[in-house]
Amino acid sequence: MQPIKITLKGDFYDCQIYRGRLYLWTFDGALKVYDWNELVQSFIKKETDRIAMTFCFLDGNYLYKSSLIELFKDKDFKKLLLEKFDRIERPIFELSENELVKYLLGEQDTPTGILPTDTEIYSNKLYFIHEKGLYSGSAHRAKSEKYLVSSRPSKLWDCNLLSIKANKYPQLALSGGDEGLFELNMADNLPSNLQKIEAKNPIYQISKNHSSFSNYSYLNIYNTSMIEDSFMALFKWNMTKDKLNREKPLRDFDLNINDHDIFKEENIKHFISWGIEDKIYKASEGGFEIIKYNNYANKEKGEERFTRLKTFNLNAWKGKVINGGTTYFGNIVESENALIVIRSDGKSLTIPGPITKWRVYPRSINYENHLHVILDDRIEIYSFNHDYFLNQETKEIGIQFSSEKHTRTQKTSYFDDPVADMFNNSLPF
Amino acid sequence: MPYISDTKIDLTGQSVTSNYIISSQHRRVGNPNKSIWTISFEDEVTCFVHTITNKWKIGPDAWGIKVIGDILQVVGLNNDKQELKIARFVDGTNTDIWHGYPADYMRKSKDRPSTAVLKSWVKSGFITKAKMSKIRTGQSCNL
Questions:
Q1: DSSP secondary structure, A291-358, as one string
Q2: Which chain A positions have a beta carbon within 8 Å of B119's beta carbon?
Q3: How confident is residue A423, by pLDDT bands cut at 50, 70 and 90?
Q4: Where would a tag sit more exposed on chain B, N or C end, judged by fewer CB atoms within 10 A?
């Protein structure tokens, strides 16, 4: 089963997808917002392809439903759906810059006028960084608004950050290179044992060690450094009492665990490691090591927090590994010349560079099967659909899909609300 | 006339009003906090003049490159003896008297060139858009 791809031509620099809208930053400094739902619909030429295209590009979550997993145990149902995916593998879905204009909802100068180093859209807000600092402004505004993204974002901090990553609690991990690892904590209950380093905003220093990029693993942050050892910053719930003597849990910092301790090795040569949710990965000369992280390990029962799953040998990349990421459908490893997707079913896909930027959206509601790759003259939007048919508890590559993701508001599926007004009342994140 | 380190160099003869000082701290090995130049005094000054002429500066910070053909050349080494291809220049006292050193953009946030300067390099064909993105995010790339 091959991934399905949509190619959009243009000179792009960054991208985001959020609630039925595709956000593309062009190299010349524009921010263009496209109607993603309409754009995908335009490729559906036969009604019999509608379901597969919708699962691929508009509602990647739907097929993880436990009721459907039961259905797929019937080989006839599974065969029928696989045939539908097969049928849309062959057509070329591509739009030129001129054709893309038809789906344009809004165009504006990129907020602050400087191309962002990194972006996140979270809870209807765009967060972005560049050399002047960290900013946020409203996004996903009504179509009647002059600007669909705030043209006057607020400056939250003046640190020259390298990358940002949001989770759902809600917090934003901030990687500041040699300045260290920080967190913008927008939760109601703030940590009691971390130093707040910004007077006006709840920004806390997690570590002074080097941070290239970071990601959340449950409550914790896995900090990746391209320079020094990477580490996992562990947090724990501290139960306290509020003024009315009610239980008040605080997410307090616990300790940092070095990746040499996690992987139980003493390599002199530096290799990049990264982690998200239940898995931690470390690149090696010819592949990578996989560690399963048990956030709920009970030591009294002999359960280990970190368990080595396997060593994955792969000679798919040449040159230094410079970036890595993980989503449900597999691992994404960026080397100096290519992007390699090691799928959760063990197969791999190599996308030749030069790669300007790539993004996955494992914390989104409908786009967790997407991989967006910005190349020199286009963006390629891949949809991976093999993971629905795998046993989530035993798979070794990729995030395990948990029942927590199913606990959503009623109107979260594209099928429930194709006009993308979902989440208006209750935002899961 | 050969240049002398730690001495103000008048560059008006090279169509630049700024002054430049070759810092001996970035010529000596042994200081763990300082990268060192591997290019000659003349090349360092030429790199600075080229930087100012092309307006690759934002306030008191500027970034330069040494290009032969369209290939970026090594200008120095970091403490781990890794080759560096970007130069950083600083007008530390806001008096238009500059000094410079090889920039270690992966290790030091302040050494990362600004977005506007990198865009200018992409438009001139010195680096690709992909490399600009890697530099901004502190990732390694074959410059």
A1: EEE-TT--GGGT--SEEEEEEEE-----S-EEEEEEETTEEEEEESSEEEEEETTS-EEEEES--SEE
A2: 27, 115
A3: very low
A4: N
Question: pTM for the full model?
Answer: 0.93
pLDDT tens per residue across span A15-48: 999 999 999 999 999 999 999 999 999 999 999 9
Q: Which residues contact A123 (CB under 8 A, 6 or more apart)?
A: A170, A427, A429
CB contact under 8 A, B107 and A162: no
Inter-residue contact B55 to B121 (CB < 8 Å): no
Q: Distance between CA atoms of B51 and B40, rounded to whole angstroms?
A: 17
Tokens of A26: 């062009």
How far apart are the C-alpha atoms of A340 and A383, rounded to whole Å?
15
Q: What is the pLDDT of residues A186-221, one digit of tens each?
A: 988 889 999 999 999 999 999 999 999 999 998 999
pLDDT level of residue A417 (50, 70, 90 thresholds): low
Bridge partners of A338, per DSSP, are: A352
Given CB atoms, is A254 within the 8 Å cutoff of chain B?
no
CA–CA separation, A184 vs A203, rounded Å? Answer: 4
Question: In this predicted structure, which of A60-69, A202-211, B108-117 has the lowest mean pLDDT?
Answer: A60-69
What is the residue whose two structure tokens read 């090696």? A284
Nearest 10 degrees: CA dihedral of A240, A241, A246, A247?
A: 0
Interface of B with A (CB under 8 A): 106-110, 112, 114-116, 119, 122, 128-131, 133-134, 136-142
Q: Are A275 and A293 in contact (CB under 8 A)?
A: yes
* pLDDT score at A110: 98
In this structure, are residues A122 and A133 in contact, taking their beta carbons and an 8 Å threshold? no
At residue B142, does pLDDT exceed 50?
A: yes
Distance linking the first and last C-alpha atoms of chain B: 33
- Residues of chain A found within 8 Å of residue B108, distances taken between Cβ atoms: 177-178
Listed range (A234-248, A308-322, B21-35, B81-95) with the worst mean pLDDT: A308-322
Q: Which residues lie below 8 Å from residue A397, measured CB to CB, with a gap of 6+?
A: A279, A290, A312, A330, A331, A342, A343, A344, A346
For B119, the enclosing helix (H) or strand (E) is helix B115-123
Q: How many CA atoms lie within 13 A of A318 on its CB side?
A: 4
Q: How many residues does chain A have?
A: 429
DSSP state of A179: T
Closest CA to A85 of A332, A346, A388: A388
Residue A68 has pLDDT above 90, yes or no: no
Q: Single out the residue of B33, B29, B15, B98 nearest to residue B64, CA to CA.
A: B98
3-state secondary structure of A177: strand
Average pLDDT, chain B: 94
Are A159 and A133 in contact, with CB atoms under 8 Å apart? yes
Say whether B116 and A163 touch across the interface (CB within 8 A).
Answer: no
